[in-house]
Queue: 2 jobs
Job 1
Amino acid sequence: MTRLHAPRIVYVNGAFLPFEEARIPIMDRGFLFGDGIYEVTAVLEGRLIDNDPHLLRLDRSLAGIGIRNPYSLAEWTAIQRQLMRDNALEEGLIYIEVTRGVYEREFTCPPDIPPTVVMFTQVKPVRDNPNLTRGAAIITVPDLRWARRDIKSTALLAQVLAKQEAKAAGVAEAWMVEDGFVTEGASSTAFLVTENDEIITRPLSQAVLPGITRMAIIDVAKAIGLRLVERPFSVEEIATAREAFFTSASTIAMPVVQVDGRQVGGGQPGPVVRALRERYLAAVMEQPREDAR
Ligand code: PLP
């Protein structure tokens, strides 16, 4: 079992507090209804990775469910940097959650209640993920989620169930399937490399979260002259793929070598995902550290 890594300084509604002292009322709508939005930015060698796009997606998700964004981009970034300093965070994640706020438990509430903001850091190996050298095994599961998956809602029950199933199967991720086609990973964007060396990923729509790492990796792919095709792919197509991989802030780009017990791409991490990952990391490391800005 992962234990909570206190001591830790967290952020709650304007205050930086020891984790043990941080409190949210039980009437918070995030707790009662999953009525909130979250965002996760990776930290690597003291740098916030792709942070502005993450904060812009936070803004879009909040607007999507009618919660006022309490802070500007600069204010969010200042709090994130303070949390990095307070927790001496070099590598890991910064989690942001904004809920609609605290009100008597009723489905509706007035539009002007103040949103709840919670932020914390997590120490995690982002670059040296243990699955990287051998590649990840994954399973496919039915996509049980709601119809607005482009909104990064804290209501993650379907993903929790998918991840539990993956864990029980001893694999790293679950790809979710609807009408025979992969939508995305439980917490990642799904990619294939075809026999024609095309990189395939599903186009953006309300069916998937617009992954920030997806966007960054697509930019890298285009910059190095790889062919990218945005189209849905079926579960059957995975078997014929040269490579499979997934992207997310916390895993960057992870090779997939086995799906539902069947080998993909010869059972070895492929050259395309390795190149994409290396180029992406090289570009990230050219950015200044947050404490040097
Ligand atoms: N898709 C889903 C459903 C996710 O939950 C996530 C990340 O948590 C992603 C895709 C990847 O998004 P990002 O690259 O912005 O981390």
Job 2
Amino acid sequence: MTPFSTITPIEYLKGVGPSRAEVLKSELSIYTFGDLLRHYPFRYIDRTQFHKISQLRPEMAAAQVIGRLVQLEERGERRGKRLVGQFMDDTGIMELVWFQHIGWLRKTLTVGAPYVIYGKPAIFNNQLSMTHPEMESYLPGAKNTGNMSLQPVYNSTEKLKKLSLDSKGIQKLQVALLEAIAAQFRETLPEYLLRRHGLMPLPQALEAIHFPANQQVLHRAVHRLKFDELFFIQLKLLKNKLLNTQRFKGHRFDSVGEKFNRFYYERLPFDLTNAQKRVVREIRRDTASGAQMNRLVQGDVGSGKTVVALMSMLLATDNGLQACLMAPTEILAQQHYHSIKKLLGEGIASVQLLTGSTARKDRRIIHTQLEDGSLSLLVGTHALIEDAVKFKNLGLVVIDEQHRFGVEQRAKLWRKNDIPPHMLVMTATPIPRTLAMTLYGDLDSSVIDELPAGRKPIKTTHLYEHSRLRMFGLLKEEIAKGSQVYIVYPLIKESEKMDLLYLEAGLETLQQEFPLPRYRISIVHGKMPVKDKEFEMQRFIRGETQIMVATTVIEVGVDVPNASVMVIENAERFGLSQLHQLRGRVGRGAAQSYCVLMSGNKLTKESKLRLETMVRTNDGFEIAEVDLQLRGPGDLAGTQQSGVLDLKLADLTTDQALLTEVRNSVIEVFHNDPQLDSGEHMLLRDYLFRKEAGIQWEKIS
Ligand code: ADP
Ligand code: MG
């Protein structure tokens, strides 16, 4: 016999063949036996419960009845033609009705025979009936072969149904699949973990998830498979983390020297918050350890990540090494460059900006200075990881908003040196704990959980269109106090034209309400030439205009401490993290700040929840949790590379406790046996290093 396994191409499965295989691939991405095995049922029909005909009610979603088919006849003409059966048990009689496959049904159904039927009860013309019920011959002896258990229901598609691969058809394939390979299923986890966590053995779980004997068995099977999904992601992540620190030596930043100290004592215009101090200490400890640092710094908007980044970069220069800071967008890179230059002042360290729009000539100079070491600090975008960019001795890389950078890109930066540089990753958007564990599980993590002193929490309100005048009133009051305000409009590619029209209309109203010369308005949107944008931004930053009307380009942009109001138009169209980022543009000074969310009257349940959440809390982490629950991990940036999208069963929003349990058990495994040398960890070792053990999930593509 051919030794089938999880990597056997699906066309070799009994009952599949080339044409069905094609469609399984194109419709469900099922390429191998393993892929099919992982095509788990999305629900189960509880076939353990039976009803008597007298108990059936039209309110029931579905019911199962044992009885006898006592009559079968065709009624009606042409389009009204239908097959009607009479079905009886010891409590009553009901009609079964079919509009399709009449000829075939007449041939296969036997009048007088006992059946188990399943379907939705209905009352039609005062008569209890079921339309298109599932019919199975009743075999009293065959309790465990489908007649009387939880029946799996599989996702299928129209194309698959044409090839008889509806849920039932797929169920048949699963039976064939288990027959072919179940004997080869192997446990993947060490015995002691199974015992400690009360886990069902893997081979059993893989069969039970398709054909559970009862609810309890199903529950245990699902739990076991969720555990596996999360376990192997964590195993890989934590392995990377261990290998990074154990294998990769890092530059040792022995001296906290002149530059760091001069900046700290002479230039820093404020006291660091305790949280900032703690994180700087953590970074100093990491970089002095001799191993490569991989640290994630999470901090809410306005928590002061930039200065932490800068001080870390100065640590590198104090030790004769270069440092760079990489941002995901041109605007953000520019802003970092300007704020770093401003904070740093003259005479401590040289800093340059390198982005896609840096002129050729300047670029060449930067390249040269990087290579001869005369340039110490570099800020930029993806342009930093181009091959032409060579550092003399890169000691630290800071990545802002890392979730937009792939793991690959991170790795590329490492390879720029013999000794890999220390990596500091800063996220501007807080991410929920569970997601952090999966997205950044390979990093140590620091949290700046404190805002600079004197900041007052931003007051947020949600107003409907008819209260627009209240909003104008607030703007006038604030401007009268000498503050500045933002008014942000959505600009979304799909509806760009409409959005711009809307912005123009809004602008007209504003110009009437806030006339010259008393009020001055800046306008910035993505469709403007870069130069004009820059000019308008600068006018606002210098305080020459009091109102900044903008599309979301300002989201990651300006830092104007004098701005005290953020108005967001059509707020219902923004995502939560975007709203939070926008709101973070105000509240940067000592004055009370406001955020006004303007929306239309018709709100979906989801947008209502988003706006309510914004009004309720300023806490970025809390907002991120709600965001994850609303959108699921798939829509959150950065999840693509993380493996969380491969999760078939585990759910990061509801399985937090399990994830923590799993992660702790992985940590314990590595703690007890870092190289996974012991016999009981052979399976894990195989999985990580040879990828041959147990179930191999990887596709052959
Ligand atoms: P983010 O964490 O959002 O990147 P920034 O680094 O841009 O925050 O800092 C926000 C503002 O707060 C900046 O104007 C910065 O100069 C200021 N700031 C940072 N740390 C402090 C502090 N400890 N005390 C007062 N102001 C601070
Ligand atoms: Mg920032």
